[in-house]
């Protein structure tokens, strides 16, 4: 093994000199032609030496003879260099260029190592033409002498072609070779070192997986040690332990894997007191040492040794197999002994290692579920099958050796050189070899059923056939054997679990291609155990409809604090979270120290971090005590529950009700108790209670420290309102992580807008509502996710968005139910680097999100929206929408819709119009006019979207109603007539009619009765030309009637009546025109000549048939026969309060009373009578003035000599003269409106 001591004085001066200039030298251009070599050359002018950037000599670059993926171009840099970048061009003025490539590097032209980035064999993007220069920066510099350029893709219309340049600088360091017994001591200037800060750096390479690299120790037990164990690097350090072992300072941290690959690995150890950064190959682990000591006390000598390493050069190079590779090698034919041995390393549990045919059968050596298994099939003995296996869990990525030996009549299998565990078995015949051996796979796997194995993925070396080591260089030169898709002299195995991408303690397992995480028991979920499994607070559980009980909560989401169990109390309006402690109620205080004080430690069913996270809310303690002091968060506080800091009194002393007025605490007088709440959040939770004066004879103390109770969750409701399409909230960029999650709630009435946007150096994040669209771009990779919701997202209701981007996938979740997942590319294991600022809303000229956003959390960190919104124009703290402040203005069931600068009222599902849904929608019915609305039968056909939002949509024709509400207004002089009739596909019906005397009748026919159930309002003539409002509401058998401003009346259907209004079919207004069985009384008495007058506000449940008929822009199953003219019928919103039952002429207890406006029922004190006289005089005066004005106007126009005609121009096509006037005069609507009113003076 080679050990490079980077902390030597020589290296320190070298590093200082190299740091004085940039590492940007051109490394390839100064080299001679002979420093370039290649797999082949297309022609004389296409040699490797012409492959220098911007050169035109020869054919203008290198091109190989064959255009396939086995070609390479090699550059010998002359000595070890530090390479930081590569630039490429195509061959000059040609159609030959390379579009994708890889890099291999080596120090000795053997055992090549692929360039890795983000845990993958990296593929570089090359050229798209022959002249442009494409430069690629290496994520981490490589130290090497030889570099190979491996083309992977090229111009389809040309050949492989390249010119290149390598950038970097010279590198020099002392190198020491260890033979397994050597040791080097480094002596400090003083004989004893007591160090607070250390920096140790070194580089090493080896082919052995176990050994000590560095060790130093002191006389007090301090030590530091760096060693390899199973090809992993272990750092052990002890800054000191106590004499009796109560404080253990030993700390061990492991890093890396597969470090026995004979490649250089760099180590940096930085320590400041107990804080250590342990870096291996650019991956850093941060940790704190155990114990309480800060100094590393060492003797004057630090040793660097190797007890097992050996520098013997291996005579065999590794072979790399992928899923389509095989290596075919020759052996002895017709031999009586079969001997094959090899070493392998892989992550896959199964794969073919070797296959060979015998003269009478075949032999297969493979890996099955982590065991080496041999199958021998002897055809001479009627397909006798022999199976032996050995070893376990051999797919651990480590090198394992296998030796199979079959001779005479037995076979032996040895794994990892353990002769004691060699497996032997008898063979029924003498072995006779076939002479051809396949390793890793072969075409016979697909063409024959003899092998059930899959191809091997991994590395092999030290392949022996017939006890002879195979010369792989001869295989590469084509002198012996053959191969396909095999990479010789390289082992490109990757440990995908180092570093471990499974977060929060998730267990990582891997195959050759990928890794997976087992998140069981962690409290997290997802591909990398990143997303929290539990809600952040009891408040969130309550809003999901959960009830009181024990729950797991995770206040910081995907942050480092683990979830913990609490009790949630949701019985009150405020949600309470309770954390219990270890102290039983009324705990006796007995043991004390020499000062007479007893110390009681308080612990909780959560860690200090978890408790502190919870106390960020409003919290309190219930406590009672003897005389004592509290210790909270390592701070002492001398007060008790019910009091406060510095007061020096208990609750009874503050309220002046202590049992002994001479003391400020009951316990000071040894009477009763002192109890109260601890409400100062910064002083919670209580971790220790110290009780004094416990040594008094005859005294006794009992202590109760109640649970920690916290209410609400302010972070969950931390919100901001965006009121302008150009508004945005600015935050500093959040740190990039391999896994990044974002979650927030929003509500809006706008159909589109940008939620969040941030653009980094190589990453872009963009989330917007358009459905919900997430756009992520990481390292040039564009990932676009969209989630569709079954209901519109601009419904002004709260919706939740959750986004996660990790190295395996990108996930977008909407409302916890709708999910879109996109697998990441194999190479896309980069962090989300967001170096610029983060904007909520749009910062790039797009339309911003309009509405409310709350509970924004990124990587477990809550963003304070309210504080930042208070500083930002166009954004306001909290979610105080216009609707929450002005919802009272949307009347009659209208829905308030948020607008970015106001609000609007959606009246589509009401019988009203206008900005506040207060304008009546009505129509004047001439003789014979009717409106018919038909409910669509539920036949499974889709309903057009434009109909669903119309006032005529809202009820399926197949509905069987047990509740309905019918509301309308009318005015008429005509009786009898039908106002509203609702039919069904059965014989059920509901009718509201005016009888001959103008009184109102309601007729319910729901089945079960011989005649309809009728409700007669006999006490008033409703056909008096005045507007009347009717509200009929039924729930099962109960019918409620509200007529005008009179008190509510209640009626009950008979017990024999059905309660279901089955299969509602149609609504008729003004007249009935329908076939089938209809109530004959309706047709005979009320249907002819039909209703004449005004109807308005007609609504049956959510259906407004008259509004649908009068609004031409609405699509609804409604038809009109006859003349229907829009009119509000003189109706207006009611402002008269309901009459009391004492004055109600319809009330059952006052049936004999007369109307209250009659003169004889007025007050007898004369006040009302005098007012009536005065009012009458004023009325007479006003009437006389009006008569004079009318006479003057008529006299004036009579003498003007002008001639006016009201003859309608459309009389020819009209049914009558009145109809012609209606058709031709647009203002006639208002004429009717005014003509139907009665004026009282």
TrEMBL record:
Q: What residues does the EGF-like domain cover?
A: 493-530, 880-918
Q: Which Pfam families match?
A: EGF (PF00008), F5_F8_type_C (PF00754), Laminin_G_2 (PF02210)
Tell me which positions the record assigns to the signal sequence: 1-17
Task: List the subcellular locations.
Answer: Cell junction, Paranodal septate junction; Membrane
Q: Which InterPro entries does this UniProt record tie to the protein?
A: ConA-like_dom_sf (IPR013320), EGF (IPR000742), FA58C (IPR000421), Fibrinogen-like_C (IPR036056), Fibrinogen_a/b/g_C_dom (IPR002181), Galactose-bd-like_sf (IPR008979), Laminin_G (IPR001791), Neurexin-like (IPR003585)
Q: Which GO terms describe its biological process?
A: cell adhesion
Domain spans labelled F5/8 type C: 16-169
The entry's keywords: Cell adhesion, Cell junction, Disulfide bond, EGF-like domain, Membrane, Phosphoprotein, Repeat, Signal, Transmembrane, Transmembrane helix
| Fibrinogen C-terminal domain location | 529-581
Primary location group: other
Annotated Laminin G domain ranges read: 316-491, 718-879, 920-1129
Entry superkingdom? Eukaryota
Its membrane topology is listed as: Single-pass type I membrane protein
Q: Where are the transmembrane segments?
A: 1172-1193
What cystine linkages occur within this chain? Answer: 852-879
Look up the record and report any one GO term of the cellular component aspect.
paranodal junction
- SUPFAM superfamilies to which the protein is assigned, alphabetical: Concanavalin A-like lectins/glucanases (SSF49899), Fibrinogen C-terminal domain-like (SSF56496), Galactose-binding domain-like (SSF49785)
Q: Which family does it belong to?
A: Belongs to the neurexin family.
Q: What is this protein called?
A: Contactin associated protein 2b
Q: Lineage of the native species?
A: Eukaryota, Metazoa, Chordata, Craniata, Vertebrata
